[in-house]
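Q: My labmate handed me this sequence with no annotations at all. I'd like to see what the chain might look like in three dimensions before we decide whether it's worth expressing. Could you predict it?
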Amino acid sequence: MVAPPTHTETDRVDEREWAEFLKSFTSLHQERSYWVPDAQVEGTIPKELEGTLLKNGPGQFEIGGQKVAHPFDGDGMVAAFAFKEGRCFFSNRFVRTKAYTEEQRAGRMLYRGAFSAGNPGGKGFFNPFKLDVKGIANTGVVRWGGRTLALYERDMPYELESPDLQTLGTTDADGALKDTDPYFGAHYRITTDADGKRTLIGFSSSEVGSQNRLTVWEFDEDFNRLTRTQEVFKGAFGFYHDFAMTEKHYVFLQNPIRLNLYKFVTQYMLGKAGVAECLEFDTSQKSLIHLIPRPGKGGMRGTYETTPFFAFHHCNAFESADGKTLILDTVAELKGVIFSAKVEGPDTVYGREENRGSLTRLSINLASGKVDQRVLIDRSVEFPSVASTVVAKPHRHIYMVGDRFNSPDTWGPVQVICKVSISEGIESLSPKVSQDVYYPGKSCWVHEPVFVPRPNAKAEDDGWVLAMVNDSTTGQAFMAILEAQDLAAGPIAKIHLKHHYPQALHGSWSPDFIGPDPKQPYEPRLHDTRGVDPLVYA
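A: Here is what I predict for the chain of 538 residues:
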């Protein structure tokens, strides 16, 4: 197993490495479905690993030959790795959103993205005064109540058919999402009760004048709606991308963001900038932590101030045993955020300390209102998650992607899977932590890790960690299956794909097997979306 390098002051991501990483943002135009041959599996897939890993992310980075300016604006593509009887079935398809369908038919860009103007060539005006943002279904994916849903920040979910992931269209889940006001967000939480019963919690965020309206829903395992909660807070641009929750509260971080009105009028209105590029980190504001009571759980409403920072993603939250403190672990960009930073050119996102994520613990005294915070490790990290059994409860393990250097003053593209474990002080502001790191090599770039519990697991981390890895030396990708209790030992299995896979955003595990009967013959499918009619399925 390759050990992560030791940091020195001269260590930086050089131009060659940067070019290698950017290969991860190459379109995958081919849609496939096939049983992965045994010859492409290195090691052994555990037979007790049954279910499906779903992944979502941008899969197409150009339209009609014109490159998309920011990869986050790429069209959504969902993939499934379905495991059964020690075998893996792979499938991927683009989500046929309204915008994707129209642009593929036209052979050119028609819509603006959230992070870029979508302006072909960057010259002239592009859709001036047309302020809608392209719905691309490229951020989250969840399997719930027998439905597979592709999610995006500002749209309704798109339902996908099993097992081939064909798009059925937008859905309100038979009325469960009928009043989503008007979106269903890309992030959600799934809680597990002591009896094994699971609950899906989702939310939406929408601007109402100078305020922001948050709506939270809870659903049972059959997708019946259990509760609906709505709160309105001052400040329309809190950028509520994610949320956390405890047994008593929903936890929302209001980021200190302001709208650059001059840029909005002179650039966004005229089609020269994306709407996100008009948002700016504002150090004159505080970060606000809003607690919203979960219906029937005995929580209390409250807003707590802390020093300004920005966070896209949260790890988990919980109340202390005595009920006096609420702990929130998050990935904090302590020096702010710059939405206009790109992945290419001199102003790269990884070259700006404002966009560097640090694993940070916030401890909220519910009586005094005091908020303390502490960075837990030196390594820069992102895309955190915990085991589903401890969502909204005290956790000991967090899984993330990270920089290969465990240093407070460097960061770069994602090259390790990092597990942070708390051995002492689970409720403390400064718990005793350790890191377990899987480093696939200098030319490899990792995707978000997903923890999968072993059947009848005996510990919080008794299971596997699944993560896609792009290898820029081969131009191909592989799925790594790691023992969660020993990441550094390396994969117990590598599932090699004979093609690359674009750098994805978020994924999830479902105990449902979303694939064909392994005992029946299956004809592999291959469809190139650049064909005569890219909307027709093969």
